[in-house]
Write a structure and sequence with these properties.
Elements (H helix, E strand, L loop, with lengths): L11 H4 L5 H9 L4 E6 L4 E7 L6 E7 L15 H17 L6 E3 L10 H11 L14 H5 L5 H16 L1
Parallel strand pairs: 1-4
Antiparallel strand pairs: 1-2, 2-3
Helix pairs in contact: 3-4, 3-6
């Protein structure tokens, strides 16, 4: 590690590779809430976060784990479940008064048709305005789960109806 009077030690989250502070500054300076999407191999978490100098505040949130309460019996680490979680988070955010947001995908590289953009599609269908390009969104057959199995597609329709009713 370099030493000397001109050496500046980076922030700890930057050294660990957890936070890109330049991108965070751009997202926060927009003045809009951030739609934060974080994906793991088994779950997807979506949060609508507003900036506050004392600490960010979460306005609305949803995870794919909550889909079990609505009758989802399939794995929660796939594209249809990410879409449903995005739809659920978008509905909760619109009830909390959020109309516009910016997408925050963290350090994940933006690849066309991934779970991150399936969650974005769910938030868009819930009525939240988020700047995006239509070419990054997954195809409808992948969102509905018909590429996996017909049982998944049927269950997807029933859970979607339950989320839209609530």
């Amino acid at each position: 590690m370099a030493t000397g009077p001109r050496y500046h030690v980076p922030f700890k989250r930057r050294r660990l590779g957890k936070t890109d502070y330049r991108m965070r500054h751009k997202l926060i300076s927009s003045g809009l809430p951030r739609a934060v999407v974080r994906c793991s191999s088994k779950n997807t978490t979506i949060q609508f976060i507003e900036f506050n100098p004392r600490g960010d505040s979460i306005v609305a949130a949803a995870t794919t784990v909550e889909l079990g309460k609505l009758g989802w019996k399939h794995p929660t680490g796939n594209i249809p479940s990410a879409y449903l979680a995005g739809l659920m988070a978008g509905k909760r955010a619109s009830k909390a008064g959020v109309k516009k947001a910016v997408l925050d995908i963290g350090l994940r590289p933006p690849k066309k048709g991934t779970k991150v953009f399936a969650a974005l599609k769910g938030m868009l269908d819930a009525g939240i305005e988020i700047p995006h390009s239509d070419e990054v969104l997954p195809a409808e057959e992948r969102i509905s789960g018909s590429h996996i199995d017909e049982k998944v597609a049927k269950m997807f329709e029933t859970v979607t109806a339950k989320i839209k009713e609530a």
